[in-house]
Design goal:
Helix 3 runs parallel beside helix 6 and helix 6 runs parallel beside helix 7. The protein has a domain at about 1-80 and about 150-160 and about 185-233: Rossmann fold (3-Layer(aba) Sandwich). It contains 10 helices and 10 strands. The chain has about 230 residues and is α/β, with parallel strands linked by helices. It is about 35% helix and about 25% strand. The strands form 2 sheets. Strands 6-7-8-3-9-10 form a 6-stranded mixed β-sheet, with helices on both faces. The structure holds adenosine-5'-triphosphate. The site of adenosine-5'-triphosphate has 12 residues, from strand 2 and helix 1. Pfam families: ABC_tran. It comes from Azospirillum isscasi. Belongs to the ABC transporter superfamily. GO terms for molecular function: ATP binding.
Length: about 230
């Protein structure tokens, strides 16, 4: 497995936000972590990227224990997160925002920019516009594009559909699915369980800090408990 989380615990003071969570992501896999508001999804991502400390448990990346590795070093290793709420530089152009993703690895990003524009043609059309003037869905594409410019080994997506109109949610999930088809390894954290599980190879359900179910995306979509609790069926 490329990424192996085992028995991971995290706290905020006395709040036990992550309770012995275990999760794996294989090379080329698209894995979804779904759960309600406040279930602990963001905490798992923050602990994984190193911005929140694990109390116990282990995180292995390419077989190496990175549980105590500083956050910036994890980024250098290729664990690249697209934060919830996008966090673009609004007055800067779309292209400048995309180029920022590549600053760390040096080299010539022109080729990668062209690949990215081929995947998201709308970003090429709007490349000289201030990122802040784009629609929510397009801004999410810029945020994902910026992360891709860093050449992730694993792309960590935190609620990419948040705050988007249903039509745009579809567009974003299509884009995520295309990334997977091109070989990107993805951990997708989502409240929108239906959309996430529909494109995921495997999925995990997290409830009050605990992972309670894991199975293939299709099996979870068909699971009665998942249907009732998360799909409104
Ligand atoms: P959301 O969809 O709202 O992002 P989530 O599933 O990502 O929810 P977390 O943000 O990980 O959930 O929160 C898990 C638990 O930890 C919640 O009970 C939350 O109130 C608590 N929590 C999160 N951040 C903090 C913090 N900085 N201080 C104290 N408690 C926190």
């Amino acid at each position: 497995m490329l990424l192996e989380i085992e028995g991971l615990n995290a706290h905020y003071g006395r709040i036990h936000a992550l309770k012995s969570a275990s999760l794996t992501v294989g090379e080329g896999e698209l894995v979804a972590l779904v759960g309600a508001n406040g279930a602990g999804k963001t905490t798992l991502l923050r602990t994984l990227s190193g911005v929140h400390p694990a109390t116990s448990g282990t995180i292995k990346f390419e077989g190496r224990d990175i549980t105590r590795m500083p956050a910036h070093q994890r980024v250098a290793e290729g664990l690249i997160q697209v934060p919830e709420g996008r966090q673009l530089f609004g007055p800067q152009s779309v292209e400048d925002n995309l180029r920022l993703g590549a600053y760390r690895r040096g080299g010539n990003p022109e080729r990668d920019l062209e690949d990215l524009y081929a995947m998201f043609p709308v970003l090429k059309v709007k490349r000289n516009q201030p990122a802040g003037t784009l629609s929510g869905g397009q801004q999410q594409m810029v945020a994902i594009g910026r992360a891709l410019m860093a050449k992730p080994r694993v792309l960590l997506l935190d609620e990419p559909s948040m705050g988007l109109a249903p039509l745009l949610v579809g567009e974003i999930f299509n884009a995520v699915e295309r990334l997977k088809e091109q070989g990107t390894t993805i951990l997708l954290v989502e409240q929108n369980a239906y959309a996430a599980l529909a494109i995921a190879d495997r999925g995990y359900v997290i409830e009050t800090g605990e992972i309670t179910l894991h199975d293939s995306g299709a099996a979870l979509l068909a699971n009665e408990r998942v249907k009732q609790a998360y799909l409104g069926l």
